[in-house]
Design brief:
By secondary structure, this protein is mainly β. The protein has a single domain, classed as Porin (Beta Barrel). It is 8% helix and 54% strand. The chain has four helices and 20 strands. A 16-stranded antiparallel beta barrel has the order 3-4-5-6-7-8-9-10-11-12-13-14-17-18-19-20. Strand 8 and strand 9 form a beta hairpin. It starts with a helix and ends with a strand. Keywords: Signal. This is Porin. InterPro entries: Porin_dom_sf (IPR023614), Porin_O/P (IPR010870).
Length: 431
């Protein structure tokens, strides 16, 4: 019922926007004049900036073809699906108050990705309350509309709770100071991790960015991240990775999302991260490192093993048509590439290397028994190479092609494969 009413509201808003363009007329207000913008969605705002309303969204249609370790039996599988079909509403009310509503309709069970109220009266500090996506890492800070690869790095699979809105509702403070600093810290309620009294535990995530150079054609960026949460005795945790191919989870029959390790936890679960990036004109290079340690429950596991994992990635990109990636210090993130030539658009090529390792585990990786390994002898790891081309046809349309090759150690699929290949395609429209 909620989805039906929401869809009706969205359709009404779009109808009004089309009608406004189709028929000329006079618009009167009971206050300040209003400005209507239709480039990149629909935005209505008062000239005194006291009120605004913006309707936007994104549609990402994906196709994957993959084999080897990416499937259970090693044979090639193909999947097509809508990765995201998201409607986004945001705005300002009474100058100091803001709101953000993002809903994804691509999942079988649609859900709110973000549902938050913001207070901006303590400039430069912003206070947000509601369902908020935490930010841990440079790639996670970048919108899915403008990440370079189709899927983000596999290092985030080592601790998926870091950036998940499924942490539940929370409170976040963020601020951009001067021309070089950005920081944010938040506390988020954990779903499914309750103490004996039924109270939810809390996840804390913090990120700080130092950018000594922020120019149109040059950026130098550094960042540090930290997150921690308490987990109750016997909390079941496993580290699985689709190794940057979403189709492995869309294919419920033959897709393989290998388990690299796991444990029953009891105590503290922590993660640290570091990030760096440099951009000069059409060239950019960036890298990230992530490490996680979680206390194991010796009684529930039957051993004294904790859960430890680490990973890093390095990415280089070059825009063949000469454009630079845009960068926003507010958020400490890269943004879109705007084509200078409206006829051919902007063309970008890139290479990314991902390396992940589960150093210690209380539960042996999936199918490690085929290799004669146990939790005490396995150190499951994966290395993924991604080559890609992005075509920014204009500021709304982006087409991407990625080729991925991955190899794993101390883990295989049911067929005994320890490497695999994939081709991923995406057509994207944003408004």
């Amino acid at each position: 019922m909620i989805r039906k009413h929401f869809a009706g509201f969205a359709a009404s808003a779009l109808t009004l926007a089309v009608s406004a363009q189709a028929f000329a007329g006079t618009v009167t207000t009971d206050g300040a004049d209003i400005v209507i913008k239709t480039k990149g969605g629909l935005e209505v705002a008062t000239t005194d900036k006291e009120f605004s309303f913006k309707l936007g969204g994104r549609l990402q249609a994906d196709a994957d073809s993959f084999d080897g370790f990416y499937t259970k039996n090693g044979n090639r599988a193909d999947e097509t699906y809508f990765r995201r079909a998201r409607l986004e509403i945001s705005g300002v009310a009474f100058t100091d108050w803001g709101y953000t509503f993002n809903r994804n309709f691509s999942d079988k069970a649609s859900d709110w990705d973000e549902l938050a109220i913001h207070y901006n009266g303590w400039k430069p500090v912003q206070l947000s309350v509601g369902r908020i996506n935490p930010t841990f890492g440079l790639e996670e800070a970048v919108s899915s509309k403008w990440i370079t690869a189709i899927e983000r790095s596999a290092i985030y699979d080592l601790a998926p709770w870091l950036n998940s809105h499924e942490n539940g509702e929370g409170i976040r403070l963020r601020a951009t100071l001067g021309d070089m600093f950005h920081g944010e810290v938040g506390g988020y309620r954990q779903d499914g991790n309750q103490d004996e009294d039924g109270q939810n535990n809390t996840t804390f995530v913090a990120r700080g960015v130092f950018a000594p150079i922020v120019q149109d054609k040059q950026v130098l960026h550094f960042g540090l991240n930290y997150a921690t949460r308490e987990v109750e005795a016997g909390f079941d945790e496993s580290i699985k990775s689709r190794l940057s191919v979403r189709g492995t989870t869309e294919d419920s029959v033959n897709g393989n999302r290998g388990t690299f390790g796991g444990a029953k936890l009891d105590g503290t679960d922590q993660a640290w991260g570091a990030e760096a990036a440099y951009m000069m004109g059409p060239f950019s290079i960036q890298g990230e490192y992530l490490a996680r340690t979680a206390d194991g429950d010796a009684v529930a596991n039957g051993n004294d093993n904790d859960l430890e994992a680490s990973g890093y990635n390095v990415q280089v990109a070059y825009t063949l048509t000469g454009e630079s990636r845009s960068y926003k210090l507010d958020g400490g993130k890269f943004d879109k590439i705007k084509p200078e030539n409206k006829q051919i658009g902007a063309w970008e090529v890139f290479y990314r290397y991902d390396d992940i390792t589960v150093d210690e585990t209380a539960v042996a990786p999936s199918n490690a028994g085929l290799l004669g390994l146990t939790a005490d002898t396995a150190e499951a790891s994966a290395k993924t190479h991604t080559l890609g081309v992005n075509w920014y046809a204009n500021e709304a349309v982006k087409v991407s092609v990625n080729y991925l090759h991955t190899s794993v150690d101390d883990i295989v699929n049911a067929n005994g494969d320890d490497d695999g290949d994939a081709i991923s395609l995406r057509a994207q429209y944003v408004f």
